[in-house]
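Weekly modeling sync, notes
Attendees: AB, CL, MP (scribe)

Item 1: holo prediction request
CL wants a bound-state model with nicotinamide-adenine-dinucleotide before deciding which constructs to order. AB pointed out that an apo prediction alone won't tell us much about the pocket. Agreed to run with the ligand included and paste results into these notes for async review.

Input as submitted:
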Amino acid sequence: MTPSNEPSFRESVDMMYNRAVALMDLSPGLEEKIRVCNATYTVRFGVRLRGTIHTFTGYRSVHSEHMEPVKGGIRYSLGVNQDEVEALAALMTYKCALVEAPFGGSKGGLCIDPREYDEHELELITRRFAYELIKRDMINPAQNVPAPDMGTGEREMAWIADQYKRMNTTDINGVACVTGKPTHAGGIQGRTEATGRGVQYALHAFFRDPKGMERAGLTGELDGKRVVIQGLGNVGYHAAKFLSDEDGCLVTAIIERDGALFDDKGLDVEEVHRWISKHGTVKGYPDAPLETDGAKLLEAECDILIPAALEGVINLSNAHRIKAPLIVEAANGPVTAGADEILREKGVVIIPDMYANAGGVTVSYFEWVKNLSHIRFGRMQRRQEEARHQLVVDELERLSADTGIGWQLSPNFKEKYLRGAGELELVRSGLDDTMQTAYQAMAEIWHSRDDVDDLRTAAYISAIGKVAASYRAKGI
Ligand SMILES: NC(=O)c1ccc[n+]([C@@H]2O[C@H](COP(=O)([O-])OP(=O)(O)OC[C@H]3O[C@@H](n4cnc5c(N)ncnc54)[C@H](O)[C@@H]3O)[C@@H](O)[C@H]2O)c1
């Protein structure tokens, strides 16, 4: 983990923020207002488990309310602390601004290793944590909307939504109090895969940028590129799966908490994922060698390094040994401020967290809108497409009558025509469009300004500019 001579996660985020702000023309007061975290609530609550009361510590931090509701995941991990949630909440503010999701930034965490509890116990703990946050309006569809993060998923989000409904029976918008829910409980198709899908779209956008590719010293397509990925959880698994199955990348190493698997010819992501799900470890996987010091493989030769587990894994102790020319920060804060400087000097290109993992919040936005509109996402579009399809059918009938030639559409034309109007397709195309637009905004700053030599600073400049405009419009 991060060596003790390095700044904390929150300090690291602030240093990166300061680096960007120094290149902007903001008044000192506004500079500080945007940087600081508005409030962090700490809660300690007891739950009776296995005959005794266990006390848990949780946090919900609100970084910026320039837009409401504020948004950000809830993390379950033993490493959770105030500094971490504040850093993550700040990143949420910048991320939402960068991809123009109309939210402020927030984050929550519970200091717990979820693997130590069974499902029933986790439900009791989650409902109790949610109760504490709901009664203080720190979970609320209009004010603060959590989502999954490390250690949580759609199951926990369904419990939170249900807890909110129990406590607010007359709130017709209650289901919008949290995103990342299962589809049968108000979720949206494509949310579970969204962050990994966004990582894939971020790489597509980067590979379409010749100047960016040149800076990284990369050529050609994604096909055949060697990818090392750390963390085969929600984000890492989906990113690795899409990049290998759909783009032809070779996933040459998978680093997990208890070791790393590697194979220059490419690992079978699905098989490794199945193994981990069944055995809870990469150990014993029969089809690839294991390196017990997994983090060593962050330094392996590859084209693309994707840290998708936790923060601070690329730090002063290993940054100078990183060989990948391109790092995609699927995790939040995987590169410390000190490592960032070393990597920049080495010419390594980093696609920064606030952009690379923004797929999750983008699709969460779609879910929230779907919940508030009380209509199936895409239903209106489908109706429009059906009407357009009917126009084509009518036109062909008229042509056939006029010309005497029996024009007919192929039997599966309607199905193919309407396929693009399904919920999943709309979510994917909306996400793709968002990732492309945000990349262009960053790349324009990166390529046009002599004083900006990295994508992270460009991302901060783009994001901070939008947050500042929002504060100015409010008259603050
Ligand atoms: N879930 C989301 O939608 C989302 C959205 C944006 C950003 N993120 C960020 O992505 C990262 C991963 O989140 P997730 O939702 O995939 O979490 P997850 O809990 O689903 O998966 C995390 C994975 O990392 C592994 N891991 C933990 N410690 C490790 C270590 N020391 N070395 C190697 N592997 C380790 C775990 O075993 C697990 O497989 C986090 O930084 C999170 O903040 C997640």
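Recorded for review: The chain has a mean pLDDT of 95.
Action items: CL to compare against the apo run; MP to circulate these notes.
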